[in-house]
Amino acid sequence: MTGIHKIKHVVVIMQENRSFDSYFGTYPGADGIPSSNGRFTVCVPAPKGGCERPFHDRSDINSGGAHTHETAIADIDGGKMDGFVRTGVRFVHVCFRARDPRCAPLKPVDVMGYHDAREIPNYWAYAKNFVLHDHMFEPVSAWSLPAHLYMVSAWSARCSSAAASSCHGDIKGVGPYTNAEQEQFVDQAIATGTAPVHDAWTDITYLLHKHHVSWRYYVETGQEPDCRNDAAACPGLKQDYKTPGVWNPLPLFTDVHADGQLRNVQPTQSFLTAARGGTLPAVSWVIPNERDSEHPSAGIHQGQAWVTNLVNSIMRGPDWNSTAIFVSWDDWGGFYDHVAPPVVDGNGYGLRVPSLVISPYAKRGYIDHQTLSHDAYLRFIEDDFLGGARLDPRTDGRPDPRPDVRENVSQLGNLIKDFDFNQLPRAPLILSRNPPRD
């Protein structure tokens, strides 16, 4: 795979809480919402009888639904994919900051709504000009905490000590601490610049450091996108690169501290500076705050503007010709999707989420139908920079009791198919951060 090494920079942008059908369910050629003769053929049962059909949602702000492990099981309903309205009504996901004025226009349940190019024109433009995945699944059937742990380590666990052998799988998302304890740790981090360490299994930064590959994890300052533990309501918690938590998990990993890599967790402004100046690291993750996350009740137009600014900054910089950008959403957010996720182990996959590949070597207008999860991003990073080394307890030099090697499961496709490394690098596609919308 010599062509893959034309990619010197991988950037993963992880947004919040959208299903594939909620954003690309009507995208031409994609595996979208089932229809016949211009009419949707699905109707999801409602709790009090009847059913709800998908509808075009012109709202910029949505309410979504609950998205725990339990509600994922209920939504999937043994593969029938018909639990969304029932769980949406039963577990109304109210605005997580009390008295937020943006919550006023929200309807109780809008999980059957979908958006298209009228509301998210830039995302559809990226799909038209680059690559869209229509079978990208959340790696775990749960909410943001396990999803973000999988994003950097291909596992979600809880550990009883600083020894990797003490860890055991945990995907329900309650985390190792209560909300009150998490808030105390955030306060400690703000006051002292230090953080507690409890995630003792191995994450991808261990292999990157071992192979002398540069990385950064960029966190936008603001408030966290949602309640910890997926509670219905909570005070907004401060987020920045110094506050460990659900959306900033690497400061809680023992290997990050042991390798002296905590300084690689940085503010988003450092990413923009690196992108514009041509000093991007080999691997970057970029995480939004609540306002820019698209997590209900944040506006989708604002989130799209945030992503567009990141992509534009890369395209305008010297590193564009050697960069692959992966844009995805961490979980389905309670929104409807019609494709039952495949079962690869006891933890996943979870429901489908949108995913885009933006690169000068990406195929133009290509819809990738492979079965994928965010584990595929790790696999691409490992194949590009680590000679194919995996987060494998048998070979990585830091064994933990993870149940499998997610990057090697037979169902997982290969992102290399999204690229044409024989083509000349394509010109940037600079888009407006404030395009017209419905």
Can you summarize this structure?
The protein is α/β, with parallel strands linked by helices and 438 residues long. Helix content is 23%, strand content 14%.
Task: Report the sheet-strand fraction.
Answer: 5-15%
Multimerization state: single chain
Silhouette: globular
Distance between the termini: 43 Å
Main pleated-sheet profile: 8 strands, mixed
Protein structure class: alpha/beta
Strand segment count: 20
**Which runs of at least 5 residues are low in confidence (pLDDT < 50)?**
101-106, 174-179
Radius of gyration: 20 Å
Task: Determine the mean pLDDT.
Answer: 90
**Looking across the biggest beta sheet, what order are the strands in?**
15-12-16-1-17-18-8-19
- How much helix is in the residues? 10-25%
Helical segment tally? 11
Describe this structure as you would to a colleague.
With 438 residues, this protein is an alpha/beta fold. It is 23% helix and 14% strand. The chain is built from eleven helices and 20 strands. It has helices at residues 20-24, 69-76, 84-90, 121-129, 144-153, 179-192, 204-210, 254-258, 268-277, 300-315, 375-385; strands at 9-15, 35-36, 39-40, 44-45, 51-52, 55-56, 113-114, 131-133, 136-137, 157-159, 167-169, 215-219, 222-223, 238-239, 265-267, 283-287, 323-329, 355-358, 366-368, 372-373. The strands form seven sheets. An eight-stranded mixed beta sheet has the order 15-12-16-1-17-18-8-19, with helices on both faces. A two-stranded antiparallel sheet has the order 2-3. It has a two-stranded antiparallel sheet with strand order 4-5. Helix 2 runs antiparallel to helix 3 (84-90). It is globular. The model is unreliable at 101-106 and 174-179 (pLDDT under 50).
